[in-house]
């Protein structure tokens, strides 16, 4: 893909799924990569695959919730490559459980990783992206950042927050005339390990829910998702919907307004009983 040659791109959560596919596609397109994850085994696989195609790659263990470590990491990436052009704040986790049975710690953990991880990545890299003269921040929200579903209140809250934060940031960069583009990503169901890696509230069947996600909801490959995301980045899109499911449901939500809540709470239990 054109437009990425010579750019230094940072990808969090690059040891699996969408992050791994983004890193590989960016590498193929000529970018230099700073990849990170808490999962060092997955990260090592991404690193090996990038090295095998001759990509200049720096791989580090990083927990996106650890703000001081993230700052040190950003400084290290800048020192290593001399500049930073793009950050893909991709690392994320899932949790299922109705509000009534979710613990505060469950909700806080999702906000810590899925929202604060994105805020940390944005803030620590922003000065370097401005300095580069050609920056881009790509924040991964979700289709669940466009509408809410029962059992996903914590994840919905984090992903709506990412969307709000990122959409404001894009306008701020334009107003300040900073050379930093900003894109929010809303994937539909992508064939990754996210559901298998997820946690659930007490009493729910994690394995059954993960299996239902893998079989019924995950439709798009991470490789295709990465191509769609990078095409949107190249075109400086404000928002990218990934997958036919994301596009269709976005339209339904826009047509029905708040009416989707009545519709989904009636229809969803019939479509995906194990999720409830
Ligand atoms: N798969 C989907 O259907 C889907 C849909 C919408 C949005 N998303 C979002 O896409 C992003 C990528 O998810 P994925 O589907 O590739 O899942 P995945 O589980 O395959 O990959 C996520 C990666 O993030 C890493 N990670 C988790 N917590 C971390 C932390 N605290 N610090 C650093 N790394 C951490 C994991 O180790 C893993 O390698 C997430 O933000 C997710 O919410 C996924």
Give short descriptive properties of this protein.
276 residues, alpha/beta, Rossmann fold, 7-stranded parallel sheet, two-stranded parallel ribbon, 9 helices, 51% helix, 15% strand, globular, binds nicotinamide-adenine-dinucleotide
Give the SSE map:
Elements (H helix, E strand, L loop, with lengths): L7 E4 L5 H12 L3 E6 L2 H13 L4 E5 L5 H15 L4 E4 L5 E2 L7 H29 L2 E6 L12 H23 L4 E8 L11 E2 L5 H12 L4 H13 L4 E4 L1 H13 L3 H12 L5
Parallel strand pairs: 1-2, 1-4, 2-3, 4-6, 5-8, 6-7, 7-9
Describe this structure in words.
It is a single chain. The chain has helices spanning 17-28, 40-52, 67-81, 104-132, 153-175, 206-217, 222-234, 244-256, 260-271; strands at residues 8-11, 32-37, 57-61, 86-89, 95-96, 135-140, 180-187, 199-200, 239-242. The protein has 276 residues and is α/β, with parallel strands linked by helices. The protein has one domain (8-267): Rossmann fold, CATH 3.40.50. A 7-stranded parallel β-sheet has the order 3-2-1-4-6-7-9, sandwiched between helices. A two-stranded parallel sheet has the order 5-8. The termini are far apart. Nicotinamide-adenine-dinucleotide is lined by residues 12-13, 15-19, 37-39, 42, 62-65, 90-93, 113-114, 117, 140, 142-143, 187, 189-190, 192-194, 197, 218.
């Amino acid at each position: 893909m054109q437009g990425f040659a010579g750019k230094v791109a940072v990808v969090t959560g690059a040891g699996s799924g969408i992050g791994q596919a983004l890193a590989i596609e960016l590498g193929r397109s000529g970018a230099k990569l700073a990849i990170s994850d808490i999962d060092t085994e997955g990260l090592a696989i991404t690193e090996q695959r990038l090295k095998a195609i001759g990509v200049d790659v720096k791989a580090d263990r990083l927990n996106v919730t650890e703000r001081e470590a993230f700052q040190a990491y950003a400084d290290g990436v800048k020192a290593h490559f001399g500049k930073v052009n793009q950050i893909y704040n991709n690392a994320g986790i899932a949790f299922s459980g109705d509000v009534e049975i979710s613990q505060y710690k469950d909700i806080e953990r999702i906000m810590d990783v899925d929202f604060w991880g994105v805020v940390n990545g944005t803030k620590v890299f922003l000065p370097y992206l401005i300095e580069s003269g050609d920056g881009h921040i790509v924040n991964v929200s979700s289709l669940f950042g466009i509408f809410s579903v029962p059992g996903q209140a914590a994840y919905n809250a984090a992903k709506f927050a990412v969307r709000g934060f990122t959409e404001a940031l894009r306008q701020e960069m334009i107003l300040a005339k900073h050379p930093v583009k900003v894109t929010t990503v809303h994937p539909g169901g992508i064939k990754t390990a996210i559901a298998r890696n997820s946690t659930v509230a007490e009493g729910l069947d994690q394995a059954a829910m993960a299996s239902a996600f893998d079989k019924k909801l995950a439709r798009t490959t991470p490789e295709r998702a990465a191509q769609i995301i990078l095409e949107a980045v190249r075109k400086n899109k404000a928002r990218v919907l990934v997958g036919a499911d994301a596009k269709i449901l976005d339209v339904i939500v826009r047509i029905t307004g708040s009416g989707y809540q009545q519709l989904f709470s009636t229809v969803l239990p019939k479509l995906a009983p194990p999720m409830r």
